[in-house]
Amino acid sequence: MIWYTALVLAVAAERLAELAVALRNTRWAMARGGTESGRGHYPAMVALHTALLAGCLVEAGLADRPFAPLPGWPMVALVVAAQTLRWWCIRTLGPRWNTRVIVVPGLPLVTGGPYRLLRHPNYVAVAAEGIALPLVHGAWLTAVLFTVLNAALMAVRVRCEEAALAGGVPA
User: Distance between CA 111 and CA 47 in Å, rounded?
Assistant: First the structure.
C-alpha cells in the first residue's frame, strides 16, 4: 500500500501543479479581458477531485483491498495515459488552459493537438483517471461513486463551457 499511497500523492502533486498553471493562466486571461463563467459549480468540482484522492486511500486501506496485478498494472498504465492526455491538453491550449471556465474575447477556438480529435479531451482524461486510479488498488466503490458524480458535474460543466465559448449565458 506504500507505493499506492506514493502514486496517489504523485497525482495530488500533479493536481497542485495544475492549479499553479491555472492561476498563472487566470492572470493572463483576465489581463486580456477574459470573463469567468461557472463559478457556482467550481467548488463542487474541487471537492469531488479532492474526494477522489482521499477515497482511493481510505477505501483501499480500510477495506484492506490487496493489489491485484491483472487489473492493477493496466490501471497504472491508464493513469499514466490520462496524465499524458491532460498535459497534452494543457500544452496545446497554452495560457488559455484553466481549471476554471474563462474565455478571452476574440480568440479563435483551438482545434489542434487532442482538440483535433475530441471537443473536450481533458474531460476524457479526468474520467479515465477517476476510474483507473481507484482501481489500481481495488477501490471500486470510489471508482463508481466518482464516475457517477463526475458525469453529473460534467453535464453542467460542458454546458457552461459551450455557452461561454458561444458567447451566450452559461447554465
Answer: 30
Residue of 101, 137, 139 lying closest to 25 (CA atoms): 101
Q: How far apart are CA 24 and CA 46, in angstroms?
A: 18
> Phi-psi category of 66—alpha, beta or left, where left has phi over 0 and alpha has psi -120 to 50?
beta
- Residue 135 C-beta-side C-alpha neighbours within 13 Å: 21
Q: pTM here? A: 0.91
pLDDT digits (tens, 9 = 90+) for 56-109: 999 999 999 889 999 999 999 999 999 999 999 999 999 999 999 999 999 998
Q: How far is CA 3 from the centre of its chain?
A: 22
The answer to whether the Cα torsion of 142, 143, 145, 147 is positive or negative is positive
- Rg over CA atoms, the chain: 17
Rounded-to-integer distance, Cα 92 and Cα 58, Å: 35
* CA torsion, ordered 149, 155, 158, 164, to nearest 10 deg: -120
